[in-house]
Amino acid sequence: MNLVWGIVIAIHVVSFTVMAAGLMRTFAFRKRNLFIESKYTLLFGIMKIEHVVVTYVGFTVIYAIISFLMVYYLSTL
Amino acid sequence: MIDTSLFHFRGQMENEVVKDFYRLHWIALMPHFFSFIIFLAFIITLTVNLQYFISPPFSVIIFEVLVILAMIGSGVMIHNFFMKILEYFMNVVIITNIRVIIIKKSLFMHDNKETIYMKEIQDLQKHQTGIVKNLLHYGKILINVGVPELTVLQRVPNPDYHFRLLSEVRSQKEEFSNDERQHQDLNKEAELPMNLPLAEKTKIE
Q1: Angle between helices A2-32 and B61-90 (to 10 degrees)
Q2: How many contacts (CB atoms, under 8 Å) link A and B?
Q3: DSSP string across A19-38
Q4: Strand partners of residue B99
Q5: Is pLDDT of A21 > 80?
Q6: Quick one: closest CA in A to B81, which residue?
Q7: What is the dihedral of CA A47, A49, A51, A54, to 10 degrees?
Q8: Residues B126-153, buried b or exposed e (16+ Cβ, 10 A)?
Q9: What is the pLDDT of residues B90-143, one digit of tens each?
Q10: Closest chain A CA to residue B64
Q11: Confidence of residue A59 (pLDDT cuts 50, 70, 90)
């Protein structure tokens, strides 16, 4: 059981690392290039990159919470 | 009206002014959106109905392996989806007064740049064929730079505007370079001393 918890923790450490690396590279790109957005350049005319970043972080956190809860639930069966 | 003088990008030349930039039409992301929505629907259904499933005890090794594989698969799906959207924001086509720069960049795998100078462009074509392309206002712009293969800008949003902009900048550049050439020639003539013999004049030139 401890091994399973260990693997789950490792999966989420990798998950958060990948997210952090991706976001760092995104911000580095934005720092080098200044593009002033308009409704013609945003995704669907409304979505800014900041919205995507917040959603990405939210999804990664929710994914981690659901994973831990699921393993806990299954281990109590 | 956006002040385009505020735009800047890496590798910008001193006298280069950004006219506009665009990203691919959102239709390019639709396959990723569809697969992610299906994945989310599956996960939500599974999580909500978890109590109704008769699962084997978690101590069974195969079940543990399956749960861990599902977890890894879900992680890959989430990260892949969001990275595709972040890459969508990084892939831009910049139109300046001198050139067209096509930046094809991904977060980790590639970082490609293609440049087409306005003075090299011989011909421009706009293709917007099909109901979907006309309803959703996207198409492709083909650029002929004098080589057998055309450069194709795929999934250009609002192709009419970008086609007009490219044509306008290209024609301005053409006029400018013609004027510049004539101006330089006149200057050369003026700089030459009038009393020099023809042979020496040619040497100076």
Answers
A1: 0
A2: 103
A3: HHHHHHHHHHHHHH-B----
A4: B117
A5: yes
A6: A56
A7: 160
A8: beeeeeebeeeebbbbebeeeeeeebeb
A9: 888 988 888 899 988 888 888 888 888 888 888 889 999 899 999 998 999 998
A10: A4
A11: very high
* Structure token pair of residue B2: 């956006």
Answer yes or no: do B58 and A43 touch at CB < 8 A: no
pTM of the model: 0.78
* Chain segment B2-26, per-residue pLDDT in tens: 566 667 777 777 888 888 888 888 9
Give CA–CA dist A65/A42, Å, rounded: 31
Q: State the DSSP code for A41.
A: T
User: Which value, in Å, is the radius of gyration of the alpha carbons in chain A?
Assistant: 17
Tokens of B91: 């892939």
* Chain B closest-CA separation from residue A15 CA (Å): 7
Q: How many residues does chain B have?
A: 205
Count CB atoms within 10 A of the CB of residue A57: 15
Q: How confident is the model at residue B58 (pLDDT cuts 50, 70, 90)?
A: low
Q: Which amino acid is at A65?
A: I
Q: Which helix (H) or strand (E) holds A53?
A: helix A49-76
Q: What is the ipTM of this complex?
A: 0.90
> What's the CA gap between B75 and A15, in Å, rounded?
7
The pLDDT tens digits of the residues spanning A46-55 come to 888 889 999 9
- Residue B120 is predicted with a pLDDT of 85
The CA-CA-CA angle for residues B7, B103, A35, to 5°, reads 20
A77–B86 CB contact, under 8 Å: no
- Classify strands B111-117 and B151-157 as parallel, antiparallel or unpaired: unpaired
